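Tutorial, part two.
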Amino acid sequence: MSVRVLTALVPHVEASVIERLEGAPGIELARRCADLADLRAAAAAALGDAALVSAALRGCDRGVIGELRRAGLRVVGLAADEAGERRLRQLGVSAVVWENAGTEELGQALAPADDESDASWIDAAGLDPALASARLGPDETDETSADGAEPHGAGSHGAGSRDAGSRGAGSRDDWPVDEAAAAPFASRGRLIAVWGPTGAPGRTTIAINVAAALAEAGSRVVLVDADTWGASVGQALSLLDEAPGVAAAARASEQGTLDLPALARLAPQVSPRLRVLTGLPRADRWPELRADAIEHVLDLTRSLADHVVVDCGFSIEDDEELSYDTSAPRRNVTTLAALAQASELVAVGSGDPVGLQRLVRAVQSVATIPSPRPHVVVTKVRAAAVGSDPHARIAEALLRFAGIEQVQFVGWDPDTLDAAMLAGRSVLEHAPGSALAAELRAVAAVVAPDTVTAPSRTGRRGLLRRR
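Running the prediction step on this input gives:
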């Protein structure tokens, strides 16, 4: 059975490549597409089995490559030089041939292999020394800062706020960019998704301090703010002058310029062994985070650190109307991608009647999508909201209505939280000896017991089991 091929090639090589392609055994030229729009339409109409795409084709990005794959096409890139090959591989194209390739080589590249794998971006980003040396150019970096950075001092917390320079990669940098880029690919880091229902239950607080606890224990950690509804990690850590790291990383991924060094440069170091990829400065910029790009960013980040902690948005709804249009952006795709890739999931709810009801429903909802079994954390635990002996009452309610047998509690200490926010630091960094810090370390110990040692406790707060 012949392979139907769609081509989208630059004009100066199209004629010669088509001539060689027509002579390849088992290859049928289904359509010569004039441009990218024509190629996408032909793919959507299922006119081909494979696509041959030039590296210099205008408008070709990671989203387009993903769209072609979802249409069932094997994508083969046509490169004129090493720069073109590098770009194609960083866009996720697994098979690349040169423009002067012979008839037999073209045919072999377009024919499907039995052991074919499209997870080639790892090879492109790290195993090829030429690709590992790639960097985002100064023009791209400057454009990112001008495009997304908040004005200097905007939204400052006060005297405790620090500018980008004091919290950037030059501060206490024992994890420089070059070392970050040399992270081992054989043992990719674990992704920990911190998620919970609407109502500000403390997802960001948990994410920041879990990341801080892992870094404190000696692991290299990247904290990613993937909340498209209300990103706040940058504000909480006084990174107000930083460019929106996750948006810049997604844009670089779309254009095929994102590798480990570029990702490390976009994620400034805020404390020893802890880097932060800040979120969107404005919620209306969520269309910049497309599915293929954000999946690549999260996947590549796992090669940069031992642990990746993702602060997720609350919504996991997959809009049915938009799901039929594969080219349309979806607002919740960042959360869904993080949950699907997660090694561990932390579900956060607040310790009051409304928050507990939302948590019960949220845990039931998250079980219907690809995600790990959640570690449940209840924050803001206080007797004033649920009555005497709040830990026992909350544990009993969660066991009864959601079947949750294991709960981690974090008490309500607004004074310590406010002081840490004013200083622009994690609770573990600002008040390491506080009871709240001990409870937050206990959460990290449950999520990553092989990395963080749980603090000793004498009371009932912390992990509580119901038998």
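The CA atoms of residues 192 and 344 lie 5 Å apart. In part three we will examine how such features are distributed along the chain.
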